[in-house]
Amino acid sequence: MSTPLLQVDNFHCERDDRVLFRNVHFALNGGEILQVVGHNGCGKTTLLRSLSGLSTYANGNITWRGRQVSEVMPQYRREVLFHGHLAAVKHLLSPRENLRWFVDIFNSDGGDIDAALQAVGLFGYEDIPCGNLSAGQLRRVALARLLLSPAMLWVLDEPFTAIDVHGIAMLQEMLQQHIGKGGAVLLTSHQSIDVPEVRSLNLEMFK
Question: Across the strands, what pairs with 156?
């Protein structure tokens, strides 16, 4: 039996004297998508941000490729990419400039920025300031980062927000291609995901 990419055990979070979740446990292998579900406020975003190293509200045992995350943190940060609620793009910069900044900051090999923009439906918008784009187009700029990152694990918090039917189909295809290459995806979404490899983790079961 192969070692999971990500193994989580006894993960718990209590905020303002309220237990959000306790004893969360799961394994995520390459080629898999795990969708975290539950009502608003149950801690889905907190779980994803904590597992990505962006929040200290939750804690527990996390292993990456069979080793404690604390022992391999530089590798873990290179191989995990978090995509949050907000597009997180600079409005004064163009889509191309935003992605160049991303590539430089995160030491990605870069790939083809223009090809990534074309893949997410932004051909012809490469040099327009992001402040002039719609909310859906801003989300597409953010999603283009996925195509430029070498990360094995994508952690996506409501990635289908503000994108249209064509954008949903595009993102589902991106997910399928990523896991087809051995990557893994951990996500939250109120959108049904039409990919066979999706498993579900109901966070409300861990109260």
Answer: 83, 187
